[in-house]
Specification:
heterodimer; A: alpha/beta; B: mainly alpha; Helicase, Ruva Protein, domain 3; 2 domains; 0% strand
Chain lengths: 175, 130
């Protein structure tokens, strides 16, 4: 019994070392998911991201049909990677609204001309204010919003081909 | 080829071409409010650099968060209200000032417990020696 007590400090120390080693080895960059899922969209009204299309406001999400809200930017490289998948979602009947983070009208126009325009409305968020209010921490991210304006699902990062059916199913679930 | 190099450049430096938000690098005119904002910014985590506070980070998003904090302070919100607002969006992880709850209790209680055990062990040894 006494032996055992003498060994405990060493055992505890080794346990600490193991915990530290595991923590240091763990890769950086964790995914921060939004805590806004299940909550209503924050109230906002954004100016149009470019002249050709209307801006975006929270009331646009209360018309009864579930929609996708795509958080993107023309300066964001993974946004280029997900462009074909957004077009695919649009062709499958999804309504996609967009918020352009820290972007300029001419850059948005150029980006959509190059990679296709799947959006119905584009709101401009020059100071990331809506992005922060949504609990989003990067571009691209895609939210599923139901017909009453509640956030139902968040997809972090670019939409890969295998995510397309997932998002369509989430839209169906939000109906 | 040129476009190729350009694309790589964008990827390595994925920042927008917009200037920083007005209040991200500008202090509030009221020194008392600025002090409040500064203290709060030092205890909020930057979401893209993750090891730094938003006060220390040069990331664009950290700048936008600083601007948001200053705007809210200037509008009369208390630092606690702003912290809660951000925790509601990003979880407790965004705050460097963790509350005392079931999750964090071991962090506070364990050291006290260990010191207690140490004192108890030491007392035992000294008594035996006498």
């Amino acid at each position: 019994m006494k032996r055992l007590i003498l060994w405990t400090p060493l055992v505890v120390f080794v346990l600490f070392l193991i915990v530290f080693a595991v923590g240091i080895k763990k890769p950086e960059g964790r995914i921060i998911s939004s805590h806004m899922i299940g909550k209503p969209l924050p109230r906002f009204a954004l100016e149009p991201g470019m002249a050709a299309q209307p801006g975006l406001a929270s009331i646009d999400f209360r018309d009864g049909t579930p929609k996708l809200l795509n958080v993107f930017a023309s300066w964001c490289v993974p946004c280029v990677a997900e462009a074909p998948q957004l077009m695919q979602l649009k062709q499958a009947g999804a309504t996609i609204e967009a918020v352009a983070i820290r972007d300029r009208p001419e850059d948005i126009t150029d980006f959509l001309k190059r990679y296709g325009n799947p959006y119905q409305r584009i709101g401009s968020d020059p100071t990331s204010s809506l992005q922060i209010a949504l609990g989003s921490s990067g571009v691209p991210e895609t939210f599923v919003i139901d017909g009453k304006g509640f956030i139902r699902h968040q997809h972090i990062g670019d939409i890969r081909p295998e995510n397309v059916p997932e998002l369509l199913a989430e839209l169906e679930k939000a109906r | 080829m040129t476009t190729c190099i350009c694309a790589l450049g964008v990827q390595a430096h994925a920042d927008s071409s917009l200037p920083p938000a007005p209040l991200s690098y500008t202090q509030l005119p009221d020194p008392k409010q600025e002090a409040q904002a500064k203290a709060l910014m030092e205890s909020l985590r930057c979401l893209v650099c993750q090891g730094q506070s938003i006060a220390d980070s040069d990331a664009e998003m950290a700048g936008d968060m600083r601007a948001l904090v200053r705007q809210k302070i200037a509008a009369g919100e208390s630092p606690d209200q702003i912290r809660t607002w951000l925790v509601d969006r990003y979880g407790k992880w965004v705050s460097y000032d963790p509350p005392f709850d079931a999750m964090t209790a071991p962090l506070w209680i364990l050291p006290l417990l260990l010191v207690g055990i140490g004192i108890w062990l030491a007392c035992g040894r000294f008594r035996r020696r006498r």
